[in-house]
Write a structure and sequence with these properties.
single chain; 613 residues; alpha/beta; Rossmann fold; seven-stranded parallel beta sheet; globular; binds adenosine monophosphate
Length: 613
């Protein structure tokens, strides 16, 4: 099928030709003819990367009455980043149509946005809160709105925009069409379809909840305390990585990014505590590939639409499987391949099974590379860099007689060994002390066998304290929100939090017992969406006493004190920083087509691919 056959107007076809879009993608092929009808509610289950922006953008532009400058289309999406991305795309599609597109989002001057709307806005791309604010201020004339698009609806609901979306859909004209796009179809999204749409056409690209098949999913089993070390090895093993590391909280994101940067990796954080200009700066650096590794929270990374991301690293798994879909979907965009790497502890094997089941995809188990493998990769990278180095003949010429005289007594092999060692010894020394980080997954946990232990007892068995929290689902709490609130208030990492159970009006969570006092002291009185929270150690585990350890834990279970540091590492790190900064500047080095796409990272042939660096 061609775009011409879809019935789009000439001006739109002209810009598509300029863009080099030759044929519609599957979602476009199915959505566009339907969305060009008058009455056309629509549900599209599609990931980013499938061409869904054009799937709704082209018919929207096509339907614009160019004689009016009032809003006729509203596009609502979860983040400012996505808002700007959609606006950019639509402006390109509408290059030859009089169709001003205005983006409005929180954290920016509302009066400027009001002025822009006043000047004329056929399409408004908005985040829910800001749009509602503008509607309440009567800054947007809604009477001509024909189509309302909800993009990444599942994510907007995850982020707590449920009421805002309801308000927007209630306020806009009854006659409007609603076009909903979502990567997954949880209950809340289905409810919107049921409430606000009439017999929508439902198009699913692939199975519901399925992810892109070009993504290879690999999990690694490590101790909780070795997560950071494991991430470093994965990065060292993939020197050309252009990647996103996902953490569960702002605190963890900041800590991981800071540690990586301190150790010379080209990494920066992206999370909600950064100011907008800071976020823009980080994103601009990441987009231009000046920045190699972005460490982000789920919320901050929404809408990141960057092609060529080679790896997504899950520092730990998100609580919602849907979030894993979003995370992994940041790689393998527009037909490319990529890897989503997940670190789990031995007890988390069931989480992988659950994602596999829900996403209808398979994970393979990977092995965190050992010292020898990483040293080989890094050594070959050093050799390749040396081969490729640009010799400044004029500058070095005058020193050559002296240099040659110094090496007079050595043969070629000896000289090469000396130069390589000068650069490489510190790396070898660092990894010399590095052990094997791989653990075995628990094959048949009590949970999988369907055994049901008293939850408090189980928490104690695992060396955790079980807490009661005074907010629940009814207050808008979900596992992600609980993690954010508790970790940010107590200043702890999310990986010390274990099981989370959200009930209607309260919740329970397990935390490594070492943090019990900290939680009691800092979380009590914290606000969550206007409600003051209280926490207490639950009665259900009083039998064993909070934090008391049963004798059946054998070796005493793991503690995640966070104090794991390799004492000899600092020397290596500080020296290495410079080398890595240099690596960071070499944009081209990270841009090559080698996407480390092979499955095994341990075979010789796979490793040899890295030699081209
Ligand atoms: P999206 O899913 O909207 O984020 O689109 C993913 C990427 O595919 C973007 O870079 C689009 O510009 C590109 N794209 C969308 N539709 C087409 C098409 N029909 N042909 C070629 N590229 C496309």
């Amino acid at each position: 099928m061609t775009f011409e056959e879809l019935g789009l107007r000439e001006e739109v076809l002209k810009s598509l030709k300029e863009l080099g879009f030759e044929a519609p993608t599957p979602i476009q092929e199915q959505a566009i003819p339907h969305l060009m009808k008058d009455d056309c509610d629509f549900v599209g289950l599609a990931q980013t990367g499938t061409g869904k922006t054009a799937a709704f953008g082209l018919p929207l532009i096509n339907s614009i009455n160019t004689k009016s400058n009032r809003p006729q289309g509203l596009i609502i999406c979860p983040t400012r980043e996505l808002c700007l991305q959609i606006t950019r795309d639509l402006e390109i599609f509408a290059k030859y149509v009089k169709c001003p597109v205005v983006s409005v989002y929180g954290g920016a001057d509302i009066r400027r946005q009001m002025t822009q709307i006043k000047k004329g806005a056929s399409i408004i791309v908005a985040t829910p809160g800001r749009l509602l604010d503008l509607i309440k201020r009567k800054a947007i004339q809604l009477s001509e709105v024909q189509n309302v698009v909800l993009d990444e609806a599942d994510e907007m609901l995850n982020m707590g925009f449920k009421e805002d979306i309801d308000d927007i859909l209630e306020t806009t004209p009854k006659s409007k069409n609603v076009w909903l796009f979502s990567a997954t179809m949880p209950k809340d999204v289905a409810r919107i379809a049921k409430t606000y749409m009439t017999e929508p056409l439902e198009v699913s690209i692939g199975h519901k909840n399925q992810t892109n098949e070009n993504i290879e999913h690999i999990y690694y089993v490590v101790k909780d305390r070795d997560r950071y070390e494991a991430v470093k090895r994965l990065i060292d093993f993939h020197p050309k990585i252009y990647g996103l590391i996902f953490c569960r909280t702002k605190h963890e994101t900041g800590t991981v990014a800071e540690k990586l940067a301190r150790e010379g990796y080209n990494a920066e954080p992206l999370h909600g505590d950064l100011t907008q200009p800071m976020r823009d700066r980080v994103m601009a650096r990441f987009r231009s590939k000046e920045l190699q590794i972005l460490v982000a929270t789920d919320v901050a990374a929404r809408g990141i639409d960057v092609d060529d991301i080679t790896h997504v690293i899950n520092y730990n798994l998100p609580d919602d499987n849907e979030n894993y879909t979003h995370r992994s979907g940041r790689t393998a965009r527009a037909g490319k391949t990529g890897q989503s790497l997940v670190l789990i502890t031995p007890k988390e094997g069931f989480k992988i099974k659950s994602i596999e089941k829900q996403m209808r995809t398979e994970f393979s188990q990977g092995q965190i590379p050992n010292a020898e493998e990483i040293c080989e990769i890094q050594l070959m990278k050093l050799i390749q860099n040396t081969i490729n180095i640009n010799v400044k003949e004029k500058d070095i010429e005058k020193f050559m007689p002296q240099i040659l005289a110094s090496f007079e007594t050595m043969d070629k092999t000896e000289i090469i060994k000396k130069f390589v060692s000068a650069e490489f010894n510190r790396f070898i020394e660092y990894y010399d002390r590095a052990g094997d980080l791989n653990q075995r997954a628990k094959q048949d946990s009590g949970r999988e066998r369907g055994e049901r232990k008293d939850k408090g007892q189980r928490a104690r068995d695992e060396g955790k304290t079980r807490f009661f929290l005074s907010a629940g689902r009814r207050d808008g709490l979900n596992p992600g929100a609980l993690l954010r609130v508790v970790c940010d208030a107590a200043g702890i990492k999310s990986d010390v939090i274990g099981r989370i159970d959200i009930m209607t009006s309260y919740a329970f969570f397990d935390v490594d017992e070492a943090h019990t006092e900290r939680i009691l002291k800092n979380v009590n009185g914290t606000e969550f969406e206007g409600t003051k929270l209280s926490v207490e150690v639950t009665n259900t585990q009083n039998g064993g006493g909070k934090g008391s350890r049963g004798g059946d834990r054998g070796s005493g279970g793991r503690r995640s004190g966070g104090g794991f540091r390799r004492s000899g590492g600092s020397n290596f790190r500080s020296k290495r920083s410079k080398g890595n900064r240099d690596r960071g500047r070499g944009g081209s080095e990270r841009r090559s087509g080698d996407r480390n796409g092979g499955s095994g990272r341990r075979s010789g042939s796979d490793r040899s691919r890295h030699r081209g660096r």
